[in-house]
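From the pipeline queue, job 12 of 40. The input is one protein chain; the requested action is below.

Action: predict structure.
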Amino acid sequence: MKTPAQYKTIIISDLHLGSEGAKAKEVVAFLKSTSCDTLIMNGDIIDGWQLKKGGSWKKKHTAFFRVVLKMIEEHGTKVIYLRGNHDDFLDQIIPFQLGKQFSIRKDYILKSGKKQFFITHGDIFDSVTSNMKWLAHLGDIGYTFLLSLNKLYNRYRAWRGMPYYSFSQKIKQQVKKAVNHVSDFEEKLAELALANDCEGIICGHIHKPEIKAIGEVTYMNSGDWVESLSALIETHEGIWELMYYANEALLLSEEDTNELILNENKN
């Protein structure tokens, strides 16, 4: 088994555990291949919407939280769970603190070098999820159907030796309204950072991994673990990078991954 890569901070979001599209095995393998001082789970970790509509909770979803607990117990990792729109059931207990190592909250300010980053899931600036929840749920149904269709299509592409293709990402890139919506979302979050005396903003929600400058603000989005399979990592030198699960050099081998899931399923 490979020695875990060590980082100062790891940020993941949009796992959607409990939904069909969640890549639970992959995110478990990713966390087992790394260690960090601080792990920030930036919203939509559990998909309460899908669970209410008949989604299923599986052993591999529980395996994720077992790995997180091991990070706390064995490495002293500080874990911060920020509420998203799909896990808005957490509103009933926020703020929640368990010892010094685990907390659940709405947002968080992270110091990184000489900068401060405001961290929030990002749904507060999505007019659909904030003001028209019924339409957001309708869109969620469509997105879930698209993921199912995408899975079947990519099985065919894999059989033909072709690379992975994402319907939803292609639609977001080509539909003008979607592009404008994302741009407006990013700019509003940049303004939120400045309003909180921060030089940067870190979010999730739109499933679009990104690191870029918006004016004087550093904008970072951790992506998702449904399609992008991405995370934000901060090195001990204060350098931020996007990491993708496909970067096999930094992750467990397939044999190690299968062994991990097998062991978790036995427990």
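Job complete. Helices lie at 24-32, 48-52, 59-75, 127-131, 133-159, 167-174, 176-195, 254-266.
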